[in-house]
Structure formats: C-alpha cells, structure tokens
Design a protein that fits this description.
The chain is an alpha/beta fold. 29% of the residues lie in helices and 17% in strands. The longest helix is centred in the first third of the chain and has 12 residues.
Length: 185
C-alpha cells in the first residue's frame, strides 16, 4: 500500500541530476513564465491555454477559489487542510457534506484509495492529484468542463522546496486564474 505521508526520492540518479540542475539555477531571478508554459505544454502534450502554473498547490487553490463568491466547498473523502485555509482566505464556507464546489484529493492522501464521485452533483470540481503520480488513474486528460486538476512535483519528485504546481482545466477558468497571478507565482 502507498504511504502518502512519506516524501523521499530513492532514485540516486535522479537525485544527482537534480543537484546538477540546482547548481545552475539563479534562485534570485524571476521565472520566464512563457518558457515554463512551453515546457509544460511539451511535457504534458496539453495546449498552454489549458495550463496554469503556480507557487505550490496552495497558490493555485487560493487563486482558483477567489473566482467564486458566496459558495460552499465540500470535500469528498479525506482532505488536505490547505483547502480550508483557501476557503477562509476567500470568504467561502467549508462544509464536510454539502457544497457547490467539490474538492477531492485523488487518490485520497490519507489512505490512497480511489473514491467514486459524480461531477454532476457540483457546480465545480477541484481534483488535487498531488499523489497522482503514484496512481495509474488520472483526470488530467479528461475533458470535463467544470473540473480543474492540480498537480505538484513536491510529492512525486520529492521537490517541495521548488514550490511548483500546475493545473489543467477548461480555458475559461485557466484564463481567470492567469489574471489573478500573484507576484510570487
């Protein structure tokens, strides 16, 4: 069984490659976002209009939830507590049973299970696939208009310090996210 509480890269070759890469990066310069979008488009094989990047998953969630007013967010299964903070920051309600917006950590981060859920029950669905690289199933390539899938490299590549996350979704939501980009994103 996958223990989603651990976050360590055991691949020595990858560790060495990452150390070499880190030694060539100026950590005090601003990111060339267009270059990152191009890299992500090539890596994911998804058009850049459907991709947004951010400084960790919390950055993306906080900006995403700011697009909604007077809504209630609910979680399907165990959840990451950062979603409650993002709701609080955006003056949204969080209810563990009833909501307009569903948040699901997929696979569920505390137990690694894949839960079934119905997209039609919610106005909008956020699928947090932080641990998705440890699972054969993903919603990343699904064409569901009311869904955004978030991903991060901090779990699968053990790179939490890099503060890089991305999301994929309908271009109308992605466009909204891009207009709210924080300076640190």
């Amino acid at each position: 069984m996958l223990d989603c509480r651990t976050n360590y890269c055991y691949d020595k070759i990858l560790q060495n490659d990452l150390k070499k890469l880190y030694s060539k990066i100026d950590l005090h310069s601003l990111t060339n976002k267009e270059y990152v979008y191009d890299c992500m488009t090539n890596y994911l094989k998804i058009p850049k209009e459907k991709i947004e990047i951010g400084s960790g998953t919390i950055d993306i969630l906080e900006r995403l939830l700011s697009l909604f007013e007077h809504k209630t967010v609910t979680s399907i299964g165990p959840y990451w507590t950062g979603i409650k903070w993002a709701c609080f920051k955006n003056d949204l309600k969080f209810d563990e049973c009833n909501g307009d917006i569903a948040y699901i950590s997929y696979p569920n981060s505390r137990d690694g299970l894949l839960r079934e859920f119905n997209f039609d029950h919610y106005e909008f669905v956020i699928i947090d696939e932080a641990y998705g690289d440890f699972c054969d199933e993903s919603f990343l390539y699904e064409e569901i208009p009311n869904v955004i899938v978030t991903k991060t490299f901090s779990k699968s590549l053990s790179l939490p310090g890099i503060r890089f996350a991305y999301c994929v979704g309908d271009p109308s939501y992605i466009e909204g996210l891009k207009t709210i980009s924080h300076k640190y994103s």
